[in-house]
Amino acid sequence: MEEMEEELKCPVCGSFFREPIILPCSHNICLACARNILVQTPDAESPQSSRASGSGVSDYDYLDLDKMSLYSEADSGYGSYGGFASAPTTPCQKSPNGVRVFPPAVPPPPSQHHLLQHPGSLPPIPRNSCITCPQCHRSLILDDRGLRGFPKNRVLEGVVDRYQQSKAAALKCQLCEKSPKEATVMCEQCDVFYCDPCRLRCHPPRGPLAKHRLVPPAQGRISRRTSPRKISTCTEHELENLSMYCVQCKMPVCYQCLEEGKHSTHEVKALGAMWKLHKGQLSQALNILSDRATEAKEFLVQLRNMVQHIQENGVEFEACLVAQCDALIDALNRRKAQLLSRVNKEHEHKLKVVRDQISHCTVKLRQTTGLMEYCLEVIKENDPSGFLQISDALIRRVHMTESQWGKGTLTPRMTSDFDLTLDSGPLLQTIHQLDFVQMKVPSTVPAAPMLQLEECCTQNNSATLSWKQPPLSTIAVDGYILELDDGNGGQFREVYVGKETICTVDGLHFNSTYMSRVKAFNASGVSQYSKTLVMQTSETGLPPCDIQTIATVAWFTFEPTSAHPDIIFSNDNLTVTCNSYDDRVVMGNTGFSRGVHYWEMTVDRYDNHPDPAFGVARGDVMKDVMLGKDDKAWAMYVDNNRSWFMHNNSHTNRTDGGISKGATVGVLLDFTRGILIFLINDEQQGPVAFEGMEGLFYPAISLNRNVQVTLHTGLPIPEFYTPGDPEPPGSVC
């Protein structure tokens, strides 16, 4: 109800309608407000042919008056009588509802007290008066009847009355002069609410009034709402009731209008029939509008959800940005440490060279000084024969020593400058150019693909699926995602991502029922899933000579949700390492219980000779100890020289041969024979590791911070191995 309140207020005064009249443009206005906005036009510019009234000008005869509109379309806010330079201009005002109202250019109208009196006491309307609709700004020149020529909107008046009554906290007496008291009764015949003093004074229970029925106010309000409306009378013939409807003029008329007025030649219909017809049309229009309102409510819910998603995505994106910048800062710090290490090495090298040269020169200078002092003492001797005996040798020694000082001995072997210049220009330029990449987002997400059933089929343990976009879909598609369950009613998993619309999936279980579905995606998002297709693989396998094709080709990754918190994932969960020196366990996201499966892991980093463990485990394996320490895992742990098999903390089958950076560790799980085999660099490591493998197993690995491995799946089984043989070739007993 409160949303309707704006519909019940006058566009001029902003209050609830009082005695509303209907303008030819179908807008409503209070009768008193209509008198307030009347404007008198010059006699020379008001031809009788352009006069109109509310009596039936439904063809908008007043449209020609647009050429001399009372308001200007400019932004000045002032209106003038169009075409008259001598006519005064009046400022444009705004009503409480925000519409423009043009006040009269004539002297101010009578006070509001006079306007609310009986119409018979209203001052006369000036001749050639013109009224402008405050909502659509259409202008209309009144005829001799003035405002009485406009029909009263009794329906709107009744709606306003009911709305005000519903909003009132208590019904007031209608006869109290000053402050109305709360009504205690209502007379159904008088249609008046009385308080007790007014009822005793004005409605005594005697005489002609004794037969009137007095009811409680609440019941009187209901009876007033449900009581029949007073019959409307014709605006031109006040004594005649409106009984017919003019189809051409689209207004109710009386019989006298049909006989004498301009409606005599028009098509008319019964008022009741047109009343029901228009009610039905309004109901239909309201149903359509109600649907639009429902869509608008749903749209508002969508927008509010979008606000929440924007906030969540904003926080997530900000965290991602901070993480990316922190990663860049960490990389820069690591590089800084490497460069500082090189500078320190250069610094130590220069100091060592210079210090060695200082030591060498110091020793040599000491020897030279000693030789010089000895020669001076020899020169002081007065024995010629004795001097000549040693003089030749001394002369040679002095020349030799002097020649040793002349072979670059007095030149520094190292400069004090560091011949290292850090080229940071390209990196600084790249940092300055660091920005977001704006993706071209299509207008919307694609439609759900349609599976082409006539092209979908199964053969042995393979399934071929084909799909296409709906015929009328025009949204661009970047690719498709095909999903299959595990053949046992489990969760769906992705088996294909790409642009092709046909895919063959090999290596499925025989005699199994698979469910498949496909969805499309583009930069805007992902479509809905297609209808689910159920497929049945063959009941029997291939001949024994081709039995190796039974091996199941499975694609899977490491599972972050079940891994130990110290595990670090990258490369779409295909590469793992750890931030702890203790062993931590991570498993694959796919479990196996049938078929033959083979996967490999390459060692990307191997520092300080750790011993990672590779194998399979149950879903509830311990995650904070080495794989194989409990009875939920079967593993091979290996260092740089040898390996051991371990289950339930029992170590067996020590085998020479270890791993290093770049090594490949393979795991072969054969449910047809119930065995588990390990390989290192495509060679079997030791004998069959474990037998009697039954149940559901997950690929697993344990490692610490010194190891990083990358998972490779969807691989065929090694060529040397044939399922079903009593003992695989090359095995060690």
TrEMBL record:
Q: Which CDD domains match?
A: Bbox1_TRIM9_C-I, Bbox2_TRIM9_C-I, FN3, RING-HC_TRIM9, SPRY_PRY_TRIM67_9
What Enzyme Commission number(s) apply to this enzyme? Answer: 2.3.2.27
Alphabetical list of PROSITE patterns matching this protein = B302_SPRY, COS, FN3, ZF_BBOX, ZF_RING_1
User: Which residues are in the B box-type domain?
Assistant: 168-217, 229-271
Q: Which enzyme class, named as a word?
A: transferase
Q: In which pathway does it act?
A: Protein modification; protein ubiquitination
Domain (Fibronectin type-III) spans: 445-540
> Is the keyword Disulfide bond in the record?
no
The record lists the catalysed reaction(s) as: S-ubiquitinyl-[E2 ubiquitin-conjugating enzyme]-L-cysteine + [acceptor protein]-L-lysine = [E2 ubiquitin-conjugating enzyme]-L-cysteine + N(6)-ubiquitinyl-[acceptor protein]-L-lysine
What Pfam families would the database entry show? ANCHR-like_BBOX, fn3, SPRY, zf-B_box
Q: Which InterPro entries match?
A: B30.2/SPRY, B30.2/SPRY_sf, Bbox_C, ConA-like_dom_sf, COS_domain, E3_ligase_FN3/SPRY, FN3_dom, FN3_sf
All copies of the COS domain together span 379-437
The UniProt keywords, alphabetically, are: Cell projection, Coiled coil, Cytoplasm, Cytoplasmic vesicle, Cytoskeleton, Metal-binding, Phosphoprotein, Repeat, Synapse, Transferase, Ubl conjugation, Ubl conjugation pathway, Zinc, Zinc-finger
- Domain named B30.2/SPRY is located at 535-720
Q: How is this protein organized at the quaternary level?
A: Interacts with SNAP25.
Entry's PANTHER family? E3 UBIQUITIN-PROTEIN LIGASE TRIM36-RELATED, E3 UBIQUITIN-PROTEIN LIGASE TRIM9
Record-given protein name: E3 ubiquitin-protein ligase TRIM9
Natural source organism: Albula goreensis
